[in-house]
Every structure is written in structure tokens, then in C-alpha cells.
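Handoff note, outgoing to incoming analyst
You'll be picking up this chain. Sequence as last confirmed:
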Amino acid sequence: MEDYLEAIATLKKQKGVARVKDIGRLLNVKNPSVNAALNTLSNAGLVMHERYGYADLTQKGEVLARDVIARHDTLVTFLTMILGIDKQIAEVDACRMEHSMSKEGFERLAKFIDFVATCPQNEQPEWLISFDHYAKTGKRIKCKAKTQRRY
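Most recent structure output, in case you need it:
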């Protein structure tokens, strides 16, 4: 059901409206399936819709859609920026992952991405460069020994 919320939000952003036929096209499902899903979401107070017409998110639905989109975007960022996965593959993988991830796991992943993105170095951290090399070649770069800091 989260895919439908995400689709409605995406279509509204792109086209200003979300029609049943456009939702079906975006999610690759038939219009009767879209209507059935919209009825379920409507009963849950997340969507308002006209049968085979327009669909819109309620305030509660918008909050949930934003959450799904944020999880998706965060996962795409992790898969592309940290793991170096192709953007198209990352989009598909993120879509699969976003619905099954715990809130705690997602929050920790978001913090990790923020940690890496705000690293004080202007380039990738050394350990991430080493990981990229390992992912491509299967061979480790010899790590530099670091002295322990005493505070």
C-alpha cells in the first residue's frame, strides 16, 4: 500500500494531479487493482479518490507518503554513494528494501549516511576508498596503522 501513497505523491508533484490510470501505469498494475488499493487506503483515512478518477492524499496520507519517500531516497543514497551501486539498480533495490526496514534500522542508516557525507575531509574517507577498491577487485588495500588517541 505504501507504493500507492508514494505514487500519488510523486504524480502530484510531477503533474499536479494523480489519476487512477497514471497510478496504474507508474506501478505497472491494472486500474481495477488501483481502485481496490485506493479503497483500502481510503478506508484507512489515507486517501480520497473518485472511482477510476482522481486520487489525493489526506493529511495523514501525506505524512506517510513523505516517510516512504524519505526512506526510499535515503536507501538510494546509501546504495549509490556508499556502496557504489548503479543508480537504476539502486532505485529498484531501494523500492524493495524501503517497506521492510525497521524504524531503528532506517534512523541508524540515515545517521551513517550523514556521518559519511559530512566527513571533514573533502574527499571520500580512506576506509570508503579501501572498500571501493575491495568491492571492485576483491583485494584489500593495506590499512595504515593508526595510533590510539589519548584524551
